[in-house]
Design a protein that fits this description.
10 helices; single chain; four-stranded antiparallel beta sheet; five-stranded mixed beta sheet; Nucleotidyltransferase, domain 5
Length: 298
């Protein structure tokens, strides 16, 4: 058996060196190890939730997965510290489409509750929480466990320009394949392990691991620009520019808005003056950092 595995590994290495083939290896989860000591090492958490739906105000979490890891200042992953995985029984049956997507059934979650004290203890020493759709996961996590409101967050889906680095898109499966792996799971903690390998992947275009690019972006201040009372007929121009719509139901303005790097704020206001309002404008602005970005509080 060992000899056969060595033969397969050798074949994979030969194929990988050819420009005519791409080799995908089955993702093997990293083993946990003791904390890395040293002043330059920091701790992060990868977090993923599975839910009964997309509305963070009324839908419920049915599974929480987290992977705690140590990393170096340049973004290289030093080791996996711990893993957390737990089901949660919702107040209503899980919708059939969610069961089909996640494979999580009502029988699997029956009688389970996620221990708030265990979640807080697990996440307490993390300096950053990363999710592959932080705009979704953070809102649910804050609603269930308020301690996540005090954490810095990063989004691996939106805070790395994956197409710029040669990937076809930002979906987790695309990125995992681009990093040379495949996995067949759609469970929360399995997706966290997949994300770990994606962030550990060294981007040839940057000469740095993807995590390093993400951390650099997460540290920056961004500005949210609200295009309030913009002409309805120009909504497509705003959408092409990257603006998103807020319907005002969550207390925010009923308006189009966009988040831009602080250094690009003047360009964005110039666009609004020239293309949308055709004159002077002083849009509503919000300064956002990793501590409030992606939060429902923003």
């Amino acid at each position: 058996m060992l000899e056969a595995e060595l033969d397969l590994a050798a074949m994979a290495e030969r194929l990988a060196k050819s420009a005519d083939y791409r080799v995908l290896r089955r993702l093997v989860q990293r083993e946990t190890s003791a904390p890395i000591t040293g002043g330059s090492t920091k701790t992060g958490i990868l977090l993923d939730v599975e839910t009964t739906g997309l509305d963070q105000r009324k839908d419920e979490i049915i599974e929480l997965g987290m992977v705690k890891f140590d990393y170096l200042p340049e973004g290289r992953i030093a080791g996996v510290r711990d893993v957390f995985s737990s089901f949660n029984e919702p107040s209503e049956p899980i919708p059939p489409d969610v069961i089909a997507l996640t494979g999580i059934t009502n029988e699997m979650v029956a009688g389970h509750r996620i221990d708030e004290a265990a979640v807080s203890s697990f996440a307490d020493d993390a300096v950053i929480v990363i999710a592959h759709n932080a705009g979704f996961d953070r809102k649910f996590a804050e609603r269930y466990w308020p301690m996540f409101q005090r954490k810095a967050w990063g989004c691996s889906a939106t805070e790395i320009d994956w197409r710029k680095h040669g990937f076809e898109g930002s979906r987790l499966g695309y990125l995992l394949n681009g990093a040379g792996f495949f996995h067949q799971a759609h469970r929360a903690v399995d997706d966290c392990h997949a994300l770990l390998e994606i962030l550990a992947f060294e981007l040839p275009t940057a000469g740095a691991p993807a995590l390093g690019i993400l951390l650099e972006q997460a540290r920056k201040k961004t500005m949210r620009v609200w295009a309030e009372q913009s002409p309805f007929e120009l909504k497509d121009a705003l959408k092409r520019r990257g603006y998103r719509w807020s319907d005002g139901s969550d207390g925010r303005p009923r308006s189009w808005y966009v988040d831009v790097d602080e250094s690009k704020l003047d360009d964005e206001i110039a666009f609004l003056k020239a293309e949308i309002y055709l004159g002077e404008v002083e849009p509503r602005l919000q300064a956002l950092t990793a501590f409030d970005r992606f939060s429902v509080r923003a």
